[in-house]
Amino acid sequence: MSRDAPRADPDAPLARLAQALAALEQAAAGLAVEPPLRPLLDALDHALRDVRQGAAREHGMYRALFDAVPDPVSIIGRDGVVLDVNQASLRAYGRPRAEIVGRPIELLNPDLPPGHMGPVLEALDRGETYVVQATNMRADGSRFPVEVHSANLDFDGRRAIVAVARDLSARREAEARYFSLIEHIDQALTVQDGDGRIHYMNAAAMRLYGLDAEAEDARSPAADDDWLVLDVHGRRLPDAEDPPARALRSGHTVAGEVIGLYRRSRRQLLWLAMTAVPQFAPGADRADRVLVLASDITALQRDTTLFQRVQELAMIGGWQWDRASGALYLTGEARRILGAARAPDSMPAVLACLLPEDAARLQRTLDSIRDGTGFELELEGRQHDGSPFWVRMIGEPDPHDPAHARISGTLQDITERRRAEEALRTQAQTDALTGLLNRNAILAQIEHRLRAPDGPDLGLLYIDLDRFKIVNDMQGHDAGDLLLVEAAQRIRAAVGDEGRIARFGGDEFLVICRTTDDPTRSERLARQVQQAFQAPFRLGKDEFTVTTSIGIAHAPQDGDTPRRLIQSADVAMYDSKHRRRDGFQAFSPQLAQRQHQRLQIETQLRRALDNGEFHLVYQPQVDLRSGRILSAEALLRWNSPTLGALPPDRFIALAESTGEIARIDHWVLREATAQLRRWQDAGLAIGRIAVNVSYHQFIGEDLARGVEQALQANGLPGHALELELTERVLVEDSHDALRILEGLRALGVLLSIDDFGEGYSALNYLRRLPIHALKLSHGFLKGVPRNASDVAICQTVLGIARSLGLGTVAEGVESEAQRDFLLRQGVTLGQGFLFAPGLPPGEFARRLATQST
Questions:
Q1: Are 351 and 359 a contacting pair, CB within 8 Å?
Q2: Cα(420)–Cα(402) distance, rounded to whole angstroms?
Q3: Which of 17-31, 248-262, 526-540, 600-614 has the lowest mean pLDDT?
Q4: Collapsing DSSP states into helix, strand and coil, what is residue 499?
Q5: Residue range 279-290, pLDDT digits in tens
Q6: CA quadruple 227, 230, 234, 237: dihedral positive or negative?
């Protein structure tokens, strides 16, 4: 076909058929066709008209469809001549139909190389579609890129080619923008396959990973032995679990994973937020490549890790709660503090971690929050394993939230602080030796129960250990402490959870219990305690029987204050001890009268010294052979305007328990030394006076200083004063006792042990302390000489004194027989009613004057 050949007309076959039919009619007319042929010709004519109408319809449909295609479509002969184009082609090339149809395809694509039809026809003859990218030209000479898809077509009874040209201008422009974007974004973008080979990476990826885009067989960090892949917790991540591998394996996008990349050669750690998108080849059902988008979050991760570490070190977590939606966010440290089995995702879940009372308190607080208000609470809860925790919770509405629906704050773990406070509180309330409550703690407990809103409900047991002092003296303090510890354990086992137990002091214990639900509980517990002490105590190889004397008092009838209630129980305990050991006694009206008298004495005692109600009497200490007065012992007497004359055994112990004894002892010391000075100034022959020193005065302050001041005030030498001490002074604190006694001896003061043998029998201490004499107790002397045991005891004490080189003074000499016994034993100094009771100063002076004449 020449370049000027007319285009093929799709209506040509019908035209030729019509021409043949007309020729046939003409021939028939010339041949004088018989009438039977006319119907046939009419039928043919009618059929022809139907065919024409059908062809016209199909041609119209073809044109409509052809022109409706939005991309340029050309029908090209196998020789390269354009046979037809659609309306999109006319618009795209800017040419009329007449300029295109019948012209070679080079008109539209002048850049086609010679022989370009060969590859096209070869592909089409193989039954394939041929695709090529080319550059087409418009009528004005402008060019635009196209992608041409060619296929075989039967056109007007001959083989032709249909070519669809898709304008790539918009795509090329979009691709240019896309590639410009991915080359300039700061996120690393790579395309890699399952073996880790990189097929594409942008500039950010090259910078981030330090890879070379031009290097052959460039590999991703995950596939490079120089890199170590870590999970968000810093643990090594298996190769099959990194985001690209998971995306390839699953065929689904793995988004927002945080991983660490550690480069061994540089000792460098990168933290990345990575998203991996699987890529599928056309027609494939499995991904063969993966697009990886990574952002460098090393600084953010460092800050986050540092912030989390700070939270962990400070034990402070964060929380935010949206009241409107109920959503709750907790930081990792906040979740750790709460310790729930599942991380709380709502405020009710947080409340469930708290103790009911504290949960209700927090709920009330949250309900009351208004604009601009905040809160701070200390709350107690339990973790899922039962471990207790305490937390300080602070919160306030978000000031940037106009609805004030969001509340943010902190959770601070204060468990250790509260435990330390509890330990200190427990330590402050606990007896260090036995682990029981101490004196202050039990007093607070009693006070609390006496002030209970529903009234006092309290029974109190005052327990004293019988014969404890004997064990303590014989075995020493360590053995005594062991006995107290075991005694505490026995009392604890006897009482169980029915009462609170305290070591009140020394070998005394208190038990408090409820009585409303069981009025007999106090007596029952007393019996249980006594039964617990039936078995002997074993200390080393020795066994000791230690029993209890128990006094019982009930509130409020026996006392409405801790002090009065304890005093009532104390009175009952002493009554039990005096009646019989290993018993118990409840406080009674008779004991109440005795207690009342004790309170009266205590009240009057506090003002007696200031009111000048005390006076001293002086009992002569005489030479048992001649009866001559050598010295005197000052004895305290109290004549109360309200209570009358009271003997020492009525008030001395009470003065010791109230601490008033220290002031009284100082007065006695000053008054006795002043009286000795007055007698000597009167020319009376007396060189020494003896004064009793209580344990409280001995340890209370600088006794040596007080003695020195008294001696100096009256111009007396040290040997003019004898201090009579109790055995308790020797054993309570031997180190301090030695220091004090040495100070007194340095003054020249004589020291003796009063009533030796009745109390602690501290023989071990006599060897080391500067004692010059022992006073033989009148209790031992009372049965002499008839009672063999009393005689034996006296002889033993006197033998001890002689062996230690100590002098002896006999107290309570009341008969000539006793004096004769003492003289036979070598005792030459004594005092007692046989010679004189305590005498007023004037009478004592008169007797001194009489013996001098």
A1: yes
A2: 42
A3: 17-31
A4: strand
A5: 988 778 888 899
A6: negative
pLDDT tens string 120-132? 888 888 888 888 8
Distance CA 171, CA 169 (A): 5
Beta strands in 713-792 (DSSP E): 721-725, 750-756, 773-776
Average pLDDT over residues 362-385: 86
d(CA 219, CA 237): 18
Lowest average pLDDT, out of 5-14, 235-244, 256-265, 376-385, goes to 5-14
| CA dist list (Å): 75 to 7, 120, 149, 277, 606 | 11, 14, 12, 41, 134
439 touches 489 (CB < 8 A): no
First to last CA, the chain: 186
**Residue 709 pLDDT > 90, yes or no?**
yes
For 799, counting Cβ atoms within 10 Å of its Cβ (0-12 exposed, 13-18 middle, 19+ buried), the class is exposed
Of 538, 549, 546, 547, residue with least CA distance to 479? 538
Helix, strand, or coil here: 81? strand
What's the pLDDT score for residue 765? 62
230, β-bridge pairs:
236, 260
Residue 560 has pLDDT above 80, yes or no: yes
Cα distances from 697 to residues 644, 691, 719, 730, in angstroms, run: 26, 12, 20, 14
Q: How many residues comprise the chain?
A: 853
- The 10 Å Cβ neighbour count of residue 305 is 12
Ramachandran quadrant class, 697 (left: phi over 0; alpha: psi -120 to 50; beta: rest)? alpha
Nearest in space to 652 (alpha carbons), one of 587, 726, 709, 714: 726
Distance CA 795, CA 807 (A): 14
Q: Which residues contact 541 (CB under 8 A, 6 or more apart)?
A: none
Sign for the pseudo-dihedral over CA of 83, 86, 91, 96: positive
Place of tokens 């190889």: 541
Contact 493, 549 (CB under 8 A): no
> How far is Cα 533 from Cα 549, in angstroms, rounded to an integer?
11
Q: Say yes or no to pLDDT of 68 above 60.
A: yes
Q: Give the three-class secondary structure for 823.
A: helix
DSSP H or E stretch at residue 549:
strand 548-555
Tens digit of each residue's pLDDT (9 = 90 or more) over 194-228 = 888 888 888 888 888 887 766 556 677 766 778 88
Distance of alpha carbon 643 from alpha carbon 602, whole angstroms: 11
Question: Whole-angstrom Cα distance, residue 810 to residue 624?
Answer: 10
Domains recognised in the chain with CATH numbers: 12-167 (3.30.450.20), 185-302 (3.30.450.20), 315-420 (3.30.450.20), 430-587 (3.30.70.270), 606-852 (3.20.20.450)
Preceding amide of 119 cis, omega within 30 = no
pLDDT in tens, 414-465: 888 888 888 787 778 888 899 999 998 999 999 989 988 877 889 999 999 9
List pLDDT tens digits, range 744-781. Answer: 889 999 998 887 765 444 565 666 678 888 888 888 88
Largest Cα–Cα distance in the chain?
Answer: 214
What is the radius of gyration, based on Cα positions, of the chain? 60
Q: Coil, helix or strand for 678? A: helix
